[in-house]
Amino acid sequence: MEEGGAQVGVVDQVELPKPVKYVFNWGRKYSLWCFNFGLACCAIEFIAASGSRHDFIRLGVIPFAHAPRQADLLVVSGTLTDKMAPALRRLYEEMPEPKYVISFGSCSNCGGPYWDSYSVTKGVDQILPVDVYVPGCPPRPEALLDGIVALQNRIQGESLKDRMAQRRRDPIVVRHDGPDIAPELQTAEG
């Protein structure tokens, strides 16, 4: 930066004053452009969550970004195979920073019922940093809404400078009391 010049376009390199940070993060959390990487049956639940009954647009999530370059939220739902993994990685790398990933369903979390198959990637987190895990087989649309709200709460309190420096934080596991949660994916509280 030149001496005395204003820092424009460097919000990821400086710590914003608290009021500015609050407004900046408020805008970011309520304007998430979502790119769905649907691979199997959990993608149907994602579509249900974006429909009129559950309507996650009211949470500030814009579904179906036209391209990964316009998205800042990637929802991976379904069984990820080893052959598809490089395409998912490439898609993730095309997204602009800051970007977030929700792993939606048992198959994307850990391989699900296909975990012992030779061709299944045992979790999206082996190739991407995951911010929120939504357990279930398939998880209900309400669980995705819980995951989105948890991600928005994280965005509201985060420092963009720290996010860009770390690029990876401890993931959130959405707690859902329904019968469709694998015990190994429940949080320590439940």
Explained architecture:
Helix 1 packs antiparallel against helix 5 and helix 2 crosses helix 5. 32% of the residues lie in helices and 13% in strands. The longest helix has 17 residues. The relative contact order is 0.16. With 190 residues, it is an alpha/beta fold.
List the SSEs and their pairings:
Elements: H1 18-29, E1 32-38, H2 42-50, E2 61-62, E3 73-77, H3 85-94, E4 100-104, H4 106-110, E5 132-134, H5 141-157, H6 160-166, E6 172-173
Parallel strand pairs: 1-2, 1-3, 3-4, 4-5, 5-6
Helix pairs in contact: 1-5, 2-5
Helices, by number, come to: 6
SSE succession: HEHEEHEHEHHE
Distance between the termini: 50 Å
Count of β-strands: 6
Averaging pLDDT over every residue, what do you get? 82
Would you identify the regions where 5 or more consecutive residues have pLDDT less than 50? 179-186
Which strand order do you get reading across the main beta sheet? 2-1-3-4-5-6
Shape: globular
Strand percentage lies at 5-15%
Task: Name some characteristics of this structure.
single chain, alpha/beta, 6 helices, 6 strands, 32% helix
Outline:
The protein has helices at 18-29, 42-50, 85-94, 106-110, 141-157, 160-166, and strands spanning 32-38, 61-62, 73-77, 100-104, 132-134, 172-173. By secondary structure, the protein is an alpha/beta fold.
